[in-house]
Amino acid sequence: MLFTALCLTFIVFFLTNLEPNLEKLAKTEGNFRMSDEAVQSWLSDRGYTDNTFVKFGRWMGVAPGWETVKEDGTVLRQCRDAKLPEEDRATYCGVLQGDWGYSLRFKTDVSNVISERLGATGKLMFFVMIFMVPMALIVGVLAGMREGSGLDRSLSTFSIATTATPEYVSGVIFIAVFSSSAVGLKWFKGSATSALEDITFENFTLPVLTIALYGMGYVARMTRASMTEVMTAQFIRTARLKGVSFRNIVLKHALRNALIAPFTVIMLQFPWLLNGVVIVETLFNYKGFGWALVEAASNNDIELLLAVSVVSVAVVLITQLISDIGYVYLNPRIRVS
Amino acid sequence: MTMTDPQTQTQTAGTAKGAYDGPILEIDKLSISFFTRLREIPAVMDFSVAVQPGEAVGLVGESGCGKSTVALGVMQDLGVNGRVVGGSIKFKGRDLGQMSMEELRDIRGSEIAMIYQEPMASLNPAMKIGKQLMEVPMIHQGLDEKAAYDRALQVVTDVKLPDPKRILNSYPHQLSGGQQQRIVIAMALMSEPSLLILDEPTTALDVTVEAAVVELVKDLGKKYGTSMLFISHNLGLVLETCDRICVMYSGEAVERGSIEDVFDEMQHPYTQALFRSIPLPGADKNARPLVAIPGNFPLPHERPPGCNFGPRCDYFEAGRCDQSNIPMFDVPGNERHATRCLRFQEIDWNAPITVGEATQKNEPGKVVLKMENLKKYYEVAANALFGGGEKKVVKANETLSFEARESETLAIVGESGCGKSTFAKVLMGLETATDGKILLDNQSIEDVPIEKRDTKTIADVQMVFQNPFDTLNPSMTVGRQIIRALEIFKIGKNEAERKKRMLELLDVVKLPRAFADRMPRQLSGGQKQRVGIARAFAGGARIVVADEPVSALDVSVQAAVTDLLMEIQRNEKTTLLFISHDLSIVRYLSDRVMVMYLGHVVELGDTDQVFSPPYHPYTEALLSAVPIADTSIQKEHIVLEGDIPSAMNPPPGCPFQTRCRWKDKVAGGLCEKEVPPVRQLGGGHQIKCHLPDAELNAMTPVIKVAAE
Ligand SMILES: Nc1ncnc2c1ncn2[C@@H]1O[C@H](COP(=O)(O)OP(=O)(O)OP(=O)(O)O)[C@@H](O)[C@H]1O
Ligand code: SF4
Ligand code: SF4
Ligand SMILES: [Mg+2]
Fold it and tell me: What 8-state DSSP symbol labels residue B491?
């Protein structure tokens, strides 16, 4: 798994460090009217023209940081920290040393940006999950419990409708209906900026709902499929013919078996939700992780972009690990053998 | 809820065990239909049977004749599209059809319990065994957890499971198939029901395990005085377990009576045909071949007018049998014996079988296939989840040596996990051998995987698979599939020639030529298996490995397919390696028999040598376990303890020592220390056992035909 993470990171690194990006970087940082030679020397002074692997090593902190002594005697080095005298500055300063670089857009250390924005998104995701998972499971189980019943049909239609509506559509609709004067229901706020300081029902409901609804339909449909399958299983018939009441059949016999499949799906949802986060945060102007990603990309903030990607990769991989462990826990067949 | 509780309790008390003395179950003129979008499917029609207290009634019939539907009808659990459309089902005098859901739930599991075919599927995989068992008395008797646990412990001990405490605390997948089935039985017996319905309870089990489970069910039935409805397609099993039998055909009961009446004085042509198509001791492929029932089982919506069995009946009389529905007639002179045949009094039931033409036995020719010390080991990771770690070696085949001659049938017998199929795979080249030699015409092929074999070798060694349903390509016509095989074997110069050969092959397997244009899904199981056979023989195969070729088929079709194989073999002088666990059919068709256990060949010899003493102790047990549908047969009763050990960790010494009843006759505990050597008993008969000659020679036959 670490290997996968490393590979993915490298790919992202490679892509963000492509020639045109660097050129743009030099021009925005230095001077827009720089000559080509000037660009080149600006880049090579800062180690950008070196071999990709060497650069990757530096960024990771396994190779010594770059250091250039200019003709005029000024020294440029990767490791900043101006407070320390020259000699004490570290030679290695990469991710492994906890130095993620400097964000040009936010004019501060990348690690600061990441932790702050991630925290904000974490809050958002937390509420999304709290709302989405139980709702999805309940809807799925209720629908799948009696296949073909009226309840099943209406719940299934509902879940299909929610998955079929992308966030940028549902978000806009929500804003129009619940917070603009178009419909007049000014129940919630159309902007979630204030939620950064203080989460209220008013400013947070719409973004949470937008993301959750989209993910919910999918999980609910998985749960329903898994539930209907379990309900036709032989052991459910056995339970029924043992005289177990319908309620207990669902709760004691079917539920755990039916949850095995959706659990994996919920965890797989995380990467998907991250997509939604980008859209929703921009739409509701909530300054979280997704918003930072958009900002970094549009401002060619290479180091921030890299860090955001790496963190996303890590989140995805960690959720996969959790999903595997949870699966093993729920499914006794795998646990023992 | 609390309101209804006392009420239901008094009701149960009213019908408490013993208080009622009529029949436990009385099914009267029951008709059940399934309603699909296209049509109504009448699955059961005009079906009557009665089960008296303490009585075991067998329900036999082919797949799809409605046996399970009757059982589910009794449980009132026919699913969304099934409905009782006529007649009544009375349990202890109360009509089950009139009961409310509450009352039904009260009866299910406490008064009527049901056991299914698939033990694994009927246990909840995510719930511990103990909890599943305890649930029953907790619902029905209102026991608390502690008392329920004690009861569960007692019942698990009753079904003879070792270490009951550990078993209660484990999940279903941690038990073997036989143990799971015992748990299902335990669950059914938890509240001592008055009626137990068993739907093919042992079909998924190995023969020796089946014998033990059947024995257990019989004993427990006696112990608790439970009445039983025993559903099976195996007449022999019904003979061993039941007092009365009801034969079903295409949704109807065709004959009903006591075991003796039906087995010895059958009064319905279908029953007769059924008995003639199963290999009983005495049947012989050359002198007394099986008589297959012609034609196919009618689908529920394509039943003929009049008698359902009419189109396949030898005694059919046009104008009479095809006029109106035939009612059940009582057979005069016999008690509670009835038949659904108009002509039962006109038919001479004792007329000798018109023996199919006796055929000449082929003399085995030269040796075509020779195996020398063949070994096949698999390496498996011990831990499935985290891969790697220590590897375990599964010894699937351990020093296999034998030879097979031209036009000889060599049967390979053994239970699950004994290495039969591995051996077939190695021979086919689907796997390569770990050690040893396979000589085909003195050319060694053990290391040549199938991709590297030349066309000739591939065409020479062919296989017929167990399950005809998944070996045919579902999207290609039958003719096309056979032509493809011909192309692969490079037979025929052009398309026209191959087409001609394909049609000839259809003739050989006795399928109408028109079938060439059919899709596999339009064929019945037996017909598909015929296509499989045609494909295997397409390249003029000289060695055909038939891996349980008929076990997935219905009894009435089995005989026809077996006969077909025999006939082609006779004409083509093929060497047939017949893999099976069914000793009756093996005795019927093979020249030589090889008995395998846990990868070892424990006995090898002519059919007569293997089927008569001295036996290898395992062969002896196997012979005793096979149910035989003949009332004149007396069997010695040998029940093996325990299950087949896992091939992953076989016992030290003799592979059979964990279950052998002769073990203590061998001095010095040799059986537990050393793998026995192969011993020649003369005439090519060999066994792998430490038993001294004196003991071997003192063995008595397991199966005896009682003197009439
Ligand atoms: N739910 C259903 N819907 C439609 N038809 C059904 C349904 N269940 C069973 N049938 C049909 O009813 C007939 C009787 O089926 P049943 O399962 O009782 O046979 P069976 O004798 O138990 O066979 P087997 O030996 O294979 O278990 C079959 O033709 C089957 O196709
Ligand atoms: S009624 Fe006629 S067709 Fe039917 S079983 Fe009897 S003799 Fe055969
Ligand atoms: S060697 Fe011993 S344990 Fe093995 S079969 Fe013979 S008597 Fe039984
Ligand atoms: Mg059935």
Answer: -
